[in-house]
Amino acid sequence: MPDTMLLLQMLIMLMIIGAFAGVLAGLLGVGGGIVLVPAFFYAFQTLGYDGPQLMQMCLATSLATIIVTSLRSVHSHNKKGAVDWTILRGWAPGIVIGAVLGMLLVSQLRSSTLQAIFGTLALVVGLYMGFGRAHWRLGDEMPKGPKRWAFSPAVGFLSVLMGIGGGSFGVPLMSLHNVPIHRAVATAAGFGLLIAVPSVIGFLFVDMTMPVPPLTVGAVNFVAFGIIIAMTLVTAPWGVKLAHAMDPKPLKRVFAVFLVLVALNMLRKALGY
């Protein structure tokens, strides 16, 4: 039987993480994954689950939560007619291929390497969030043909390497190609589903050689998954209410600074300092 005290500690830590991720998602429209991965990392490490596959467990568990949150998000956005199904259908094969390749690579890499990759990509996302401008454009419409086949697997691949859904790379990509922001956010939720489902199926079969928390299948911890889903269901509406009560733009810049600091800390740990 798992130690009761350990389970209680896990429960409390994960409830706090889930509450924070839910409020942030509702308030700033950022995906929970970018918060969940470093939070899982420090939580599992604090609970004594440290090893060469720690980041694999964090990425896989974060992606598992994204299946539920993306489904819910696509459903609510689609009721408002905001999901662009033409983009989603055209980009789906490439994103799925990229996600599977990302999962295969993650399953072979050590935790320290994955920390360095997460830190680098989170730094890029944080800097774009802080300094990016709404009027920036790379084109008047979404890429087609060979260009789409270059971009779509990259979205899936990079997202799995960070354990995140479609928002952090999908929304800027669509926004830079003249897709209205509300449509980009809605369609990126569909990207999240295409990224998370195939990668999580793969992660369920990863052989974990390090000690893992109770109720872990492959690299996915179902205790963390269940608590995070329950907490975000409760707290995301609080974030939405806060967003309507105040201007979230300055808060987005504060979060960008926070993300850059988290990324730098991940890089520091990956380099052994």
Task: Describe the protein's architecture and organization.
The protein has about 270 residues and is an all-alpha fold. The protein has one domain (about 5-270). It is built from ten helices and two strands; from the N terminus they run ααααααααββαα. Helix 2 runs antiparallel to helix 3 (about 55-80). The model has no long low-confidence stretch (mean pLDDT about 90).
What's the pLDDT, averaged over the residues?
A: 89
Our count of helices gives: 10
Strand order of the largest sheet: 1-2
- H and E string: HHHHHHHHEEHH
Distance between the termini: 36 Å
Number of domains: 1
Question: Could you say which structural class the secondary elements and strand pairing correspond to?
Answer: mainly alpha
Shape: globular
DSSP strand (E) fraction? under 5%
Rounded to an integer in angstroms, the radius of gyration calculated over CA atoms is 18 Å
Low-confidence stretches: none
Short synopsis of the structure:
This protein is mainly alpha-helical and 273 residues long. It has one domain.
What are the SSEs and their pairings?
Layout: H1 4-28, H2 33-46, H3 54-79, H4 85-106, H5 111-131, H6 145-162, H7 167-176, H8 181-203, E1 216-217, E2 220-221, H9 222-245, H10 248-270
